[in-house]
């Protein structure tokens, strides 16, 4: 075996039968961030090429023996060195994704965070200047944020573990002519693997031989039905790419053997498997920074600039006054450090963490802290239909057959009738029989109900209404072509024990009506005859199918044809499904969830674009959309089919997607292109998904949302949020929470910065004009505690105002410090400065010096201003009397305790000595209370004026709300 090439996977192979030297399987390195869909990247794994060749050629190409496997230890070692171990994560990946790797990535993230760097720098400068208190408090703040962030990061990086759960630890290997039980990680291309019912496939295998083999591929494709497998090669595709769902001679890593047994040739291991390629794509996708992270980075930059400006101005003024360079540098740096709200990262982190807890109670599990706020920025939600917008419970609603019903006016309303035996014409009976034969649902005695695909269950449940029985016991299933979102039909080859009926073998097919009709040449009459389909017949069938679809029904067509003995089954493939006899149509209804329509209405009013992605026909999709309130202005522009989507570039899709609300006949692989096109426009995108092949799109989206009930483990681990009830309306509560959290962040930032600017300005003014400092060091420290402590943190847990949904989503590039917020900060700071300076000057006017009473009055005045400022900051536009004075218990407790603590500072002798204060009279306190409340009164007046303007603003800005 010395002529095996160094890398049989590294170069393109033009001739599949060529010698191994210089030929390979396929090129693997395809970047995800191109317009290539996720499914395509999976499609070009080595199994795609091996699927089209015979077993003999596959064995020859891998230079092995189809019976005894690889013959030497040296060759096994050589291949393992070449291809690595059979794991989706390498040793390097272990390092990068282990605890040490997480810590490295976490620390590198802080190096890029300007606000954290600024705080670290402030702590160092404070320590150098012997301001130990500031240094300790700032360092503690950074450590707390680091710990919370590390824990969250550690919990979120589980994608590899989810993938590895699907890869078995052990497998049955044939090597050196002997079968043994070995670690799956030791497999190399060319090995022979034996598998039985209950085994998980340990690598991508080219099936050598099999008996009644069916695999559960739901973990890979999301399709619930078992897939029949055989050793027959797949016909070559003109495009050169065999879709993963069509590789019936390939057993994929991680899939489960449901029926039968067989042997397979290992053609791909580790990252070259279909599962491995998904992991590679997920690791290639860089999760974008959330809008909050972007805004916080900008805020850090702005605060840094502000700090340097303060240092520069104060230094220049002091030097101009004749002070020493060193003194002015120390003063200006101290002021700059005091100006930085070191409690901000803690409050942001705590606010997000509390948001996560609240959302968990509302059946939305958020896996990444910053994602909580990102939900409030989402302006496009791409959602699946089945199980998310609908109840995922199919029922047969209507039925139609060409011969017995002839026109759309005679469509049989099955749902409103309990006994339908009088309607049992031959074509009706045959349609239902095909529905029961082309079916994989099973009855569970334990649960007293059918289990399986909802469509299959609905058909079996309908048989009793017509007095029919399940016909599957009378037939032996010889072959099956399973349904998938690309093929759009299911077919079974059946053999019946011989009796009076001449037909002993037949093919039954069900699927999308346009696919079945295109493969049909005849139709069944009501008395059992077979007639040729005319063009007029076809037009009638299409008209009736469209009529059913326009009523919001999922339309399936049914057909069959006899087979000539067992020979037909040996060549049973997708291309053989033709010359069918059409029997009828069945329309099924999956009712929308009751909570979906009001949720969509609120989201549209909030300026969120809702896009429904479904495999249904355009007519069915439009009908469902209208039922749940998704606007469809014009079907020509509002609906885009999967086939048309595949012909468009990301640029073309980005140009038209603004008007598209529905993607019909779409596949999971289309989702990645949709996300890329939306993000190219600058949209903040949420995407739902449940299958493994949804994982790359979920990770690329700003918010990936997976289903907690029907979602696969890999989809859940790739997502940012999991809906534990699979209900779309839960997304509304999450968006509300996200918007509310951002409002709370803006509110406590307004409080912190206005207080900080006021304190800084007073000290800066005293320094600039060479006046006595109105506040001593301990008083400034106390104000700092109040500014960063409980009152500020309690603003972060302010209950979410449901009217926040009336505001449009904020832009990805929007600052936290908008012009409106900055105006509030400066206006509030001005009020505090004006009132506090007034008291300071008033008290000093007697002797011109700062006495203990003067500093106590000034200090207490500032604290009272601070508390009333916190009250005003509870809501940016609503009066405190509208939201309720007692609606935030934590806030009331925090402010109450702060005021009690301030009174202790004034009246307790020990604290008087520390803070250099003295007793104040009741009149003093009343005066300071009245003066401090002016900041609250002024802000209430501002809110009244703003509310008059915002009423019109909300109506004009929400463009989607006008389409409800």
UniProtKB/TrEMBL annotation:
It catalyses: Ca(2+)(in) + ATP + H2O = Ca(2+)(out) + ADP + phosphate + H(+). It is found in: Endomembrane system; Membrane. It is a multi-pass membrane protein. Its main location: membrane. One of its GO terms (molecular function) is ATP hydrolysis activity. The chain crosses the membrane at residues 111-129, 135-151, 303-321, 333-357, 816-839, 855-873, 885-908, 920-938. Residues 65-94 are annotated as: Disordered. Its EC number is 7.2.2.10. Pfam families: Cation_ATPase, Cation_ATPase_C, Cation_ATPase_N, E1-E2_ATPase. PROSITE patterns: ATPASE_E1_E2. This is Calcium-transporting ATPase. The lineage of its organism: Eukaryota, Fungi, Dikarya, Ascomycota, Saccharomycotina.
